Amino acid sequence: MSYQITPIQGGMSVRKDHSTFAEKFNTLLSTEKGFGTELWTAPADGMEVKAGDQWLHITKAGTRAVDGWVAVVHKGVRYCNLLEVIDSTPNPDQDAIKQIISAVVTYETVGGAIKTQDMLPSD
């Protein structure tokens, strides 16, 4: 699954792990979107974390390549809007099926007539 985050207020720290104890080494600017595929959700309350807090491991910040974690929800407060990204990449197998479905068949009837039939389904 792919995700996109957008900071709600100001820039967000990019850290080496999903914890505020982890080193901050970059910033997701307030004008940038972050993209990643690994969403971590805190299973229980702990030091500097509440059950249900979420962090996204991002690999892209705007047009920049990054490799770090950004808090989506920290200590119960939402810092970023989170969206699930739907992959719109064409499926080659579906394209092949479309080509087969749009085939035209030419055949000879019992009486000897040549007929052509478009195999597209009717709408």
Written description of the protein model:
The chain is mostly beta strands. The chain has a domain at 2-85: SH3 type barrels, CATH 2.30.30. It is 8% helix and 49% strand. It has 1 helix and 10 strands, in the order ββββββββαββ. The chain has one helix at residues 92-101; strands spanning 2-7, 12-15, 24-28, 34-41, 54-61, 64-74, 77-78, 80-85, 104-108, 114-118. The strands form 3 sheets. Strands 7-6-5-4-1-8 form a 6-stranded antiparallel sheet, with no helix packed on it. It has a two-stranded antiparallel ribbon with strand order 2-3. Strands 9-10 form a two-stranded antiparallel sheet. Strand 6 and strand 7 (77-78) form a beta hairpin. The radius of gyration is 25 Å and the shape is elongated. Residues 96-103 have low confidence and may be disordered.
- Please, how many helices? 1
Instruction: Return the string of H and E elements.
Output: EEEEEEEEHEE
> Which regions have little confidence, pLDDT < 50, spanning 5+ residues?
96-103
Mean pLDDT: 84
Going by helix content, strand content and strand pairing, the class is mainly beta
Looking across the biggest beta sheet, what order are the strands in? 7-6-5-4-1-8
* Biggest sheet statistics: 6 strands, antiparallel
Taken from the alpha-carbon principal axes, the silhouette is elongated
Strand content: over 45%
CATH class of one domain: Mainly Beta
Q: What is the CA-CA span between the terminal residues? A: 34 Å
CATH hierarchy: architecture of one domain: Roll
What is the number of strand segments? 10
Helix content: under 10%
CATH topology of one domain: SH3 type barrels
